[in-house]
Design goal:
By secondary structure, this protein is mainly alpha-helical. The protein is about 55% helix and about 5% strand. It has a domain of about 220 residues.
Length: about 350
């Protein structure tokens, strides 16, 4: 398949036709009628883009020194696609159509895979941002899923993970690409790129995108940052899988499992490990009283990149990165509010 016929470029073209959501929107502030009209307006282009997702959707990498610059408009379009998917998922959550929330969340995760698959590290790291958006959407409705939806997600999430390219694979391809095109290490200082922008808001977003991508593209970006980003995305996906399995166990058995290994009895084929530690995630049942007679919920988390267990004490992302807080599914709730 030529690059001109690739599903990635067809998806980017469909995304370029989307009406961008208003930056000021927040889930609770937009009237439902407005959200419904917005999603309906974009529906045909969303469906075209959605139909392109799959294993054959990958970055049409060209071994030319200006490829990163040429692919930047696609980044911009796919960022808008991810935002529109997020708005669509928020609409379904407010309408309590949680099976549709699950579908859109998986779409975002598949978009993340497609954005990084076959490309360079800069593509991969942008895809991680889309993965975070998908997990955030899925985890925010996890207490509302019925058994059918939970089962569907428990099956789908490991498949989505298996279709990800690893950071090592992408790093090696990135290295070979730089050698093949004789990529100048200081070329980021000479970028003179203009992305199409019709409004001041679009112009500012384009500037921010270029600055972000230039920062990611320079050799000085530490490997630890890249690995932490990959491990965090994997940890969040696996935490969600286990969280849903625990809820299914509770619904079927009437109690919480005493340990994660009990989930292997028909709910999970295997227990996903914490990518930061290579061991089981930390799990504890929580009780209402000191006699441990009334289990009310559970704690599930990773000690994060520093591998320091804080007993289920959570905080802002910087605290997690510095080893001052644990990483749980509600990680996104601790982002500083603007």
């Amino acid at each position: 398949m030529s690059i001109h016929e690739s599903s990635y470029l067809r998806m980017a073209e469909a995304a370029s036709q989307l009406v961008e959501p208003n930056e000021s929107w927040s889930d609770g502030d937009v009237p439902l009628a407005t959200l419904r009209h917005y999603v309906f307006t974009n529906l045909s282009h969303l469906e075209t883009a959605r139909a392109c997702l799959g294993l054959d959707c990958h970055v049409p990498l060209e071994y030319e020194v200006d490829f990163i610059e040429k692919n930047l408009p696609n980044f911009q379009h796919l960022r808008i696609l991810a935002r529109v998917f997020r708005v669509e998922g928020s609409l379904y959550a407010r309408e309590e159509q949680y099976e549709k929330v699950a579908s859109v969340g998986i779409d975002l995760l598949e978009l993340a895979n497609a954005t990084g698959r076959g490309g360079l590290k800069v593509d991969y790291l942008v895809g991680i941002g889309f993965s975070n958006a998908g997990i955030d959407l899925l985890r925010s409705s996890r207490t509302h899923y019925d058994q059918t939806t939970r089962d569907r997600l428990i099956r789908a999430l490991p498949i989505v993970e298996s279709q990800r390219e690893t950071l090592d694979t992408v790093t090696e391809r990135d290295h070979q690409w730089e050698i093949a095109v004789d990529y100048p290490k200081d070329s980021d200082e000479d970028w003179d790129i203009e992305l199409p922008a019709e409004t001041p808001e679009e112009e500012e977003e384009a500037k921010q995108l270029i600055a972000y991508l230039k920062e990611l593209a320079v050799p000085e970006v530490k490997q630890s940052f890249e690995e932490e980003s990959e491990y965090r995305a994997l940890a969040m996906m696996r935490l969600l899988t286990i969280d849903l399995a625990i809820r299914s166990y509770h619904e079927q058995i009437g109690s919480f499992p005493q340990n994660l290994q009990q989930l292997a009895s028909g709910i999970l084929n295997e227990i996903p490990l914490d990518p930061f530690t290579g061991e089981d995630f930390i799990y504890r049942v929580r009780y209402q009283d000191i006699l441990w007679q009334a289990p009310i919920d559970f704690l599930l988390y990773s000690p994060g990149p520093m591998k320091i267990d804080h007993g289920g004490s959570f905080g802002v992302p910087a605290m997690v990165a510095l080893g001052e807080a644990d990483l749980g599914l509600d990680y996104f709730d601790y982002f500083p509010k603007e």
